Amino acid sequence: MNKKYLLAGLFVASLGSTSIATAGAGDTYAGISLGNASSDLSGLDIDDTIGWKVFGGYALNDVLAIEGGYTSLGDADWTLPGFALPPGVSTSIETTGFEIAAVGNFPLNSQLSLFGKVGLFAWDVEISASSPSGSASDSTTGTDVFFGFGGQYEISGNLAVRASWERYAMEDDGEDLDIDFLSVSAVFGF
């Protein structure tokens, strides 16, 4: 008799668990991403760097979610094209920001789905240079649109992995900084 109640209890408990790939209205999730950030700013050669993000989301229905997070697109070295930096001179460009996006989910089956997203990125970019004789830095902030797409595979009811590409297109005083972020993520449903 105790086994019957135990099985019934486990069945009822399983009804409340979130399946990430088939998230319905009211389901929440959180995740962390790690990947390659590739920057393009006219007039500078910028090295690729490692970027990361932490994010959370809320499913409005089976195909639409709202997602927000904090993103660090790395601290990359830069040079002027055709010039070698003298010994002891270092340069960097660091991009961080907060984002909010609408995410459209397109399930292919019970475990695999594709998604697209578009949203706003409130960014901060700091460019700096230092040498033995001194240092200089400048920063600027703004808010611009970003977008991306990817795929998600559900490993279990509450754990999934994502692969995605996102484009962060920032503009300030006529200068365009575009960063492509190619990443993998772990997503946890609750």
Concise description?
The chain has one helix at residues 2-15, and strands at 28-41, 45-46, 49-59, 64-76, 78-79, 90-107, 112-131, 134-156, 159-172, 175-189. By secondary structure, it is mostly beta strands.
Describe it.
This protein has 190 residues and is mainly β. The protein has one domain (27-189): Beta Barrel (Porin). It has 1 helix and 10 strands, in the order H-E-E-E-E-E-E-E-E-E-E. The strands form 2 sheets. An 8-stranded antiparallel barrel has the order 1-3-4-6-7-8-9-10. Strand 9 and strand 10 form a beta hairpin. The chain is elongated and about 60 Å long. It starts with a helix and ends with a strand. Residues 1-19 have low confidence and may be disordered.
Oligomeric composition of the shown chains: single chain
**What fraction, in percent, of the residue positions are helical?**
under 10%
Number of strands: 10
The CATH topology annotation reads as Porin
Count of distinct structural domains: 1
Approximate shape: elongated
Question: Percent of residues in beta strands?
Answer: over 45%
How widely separated are the two ends? 31 Å
| Uncertain regions spanning at least 5 consecutive residues | 1-19
Overall average residue pLDDT? 84
Classified by CATH, the class is: Mainly Beta
Biggest sheet descriptor: 8 strands, antiparallel, barrel
Order of helices and strands: HEEEEEEEEEE
SSE layout and pairing:
Layout: H1 2-15, E1 28-41, E2 45-46, E3 49-59, E4 64-76, E5 78-79, E6 90-107, E7 112-131, E8 134-156, E9 159-172, E10 175-189
Antiparallel strand pairs: 1-3, 1-10, 2-5, 3-4, 4-6, 6-7, 7-8, 8-9, 9-10
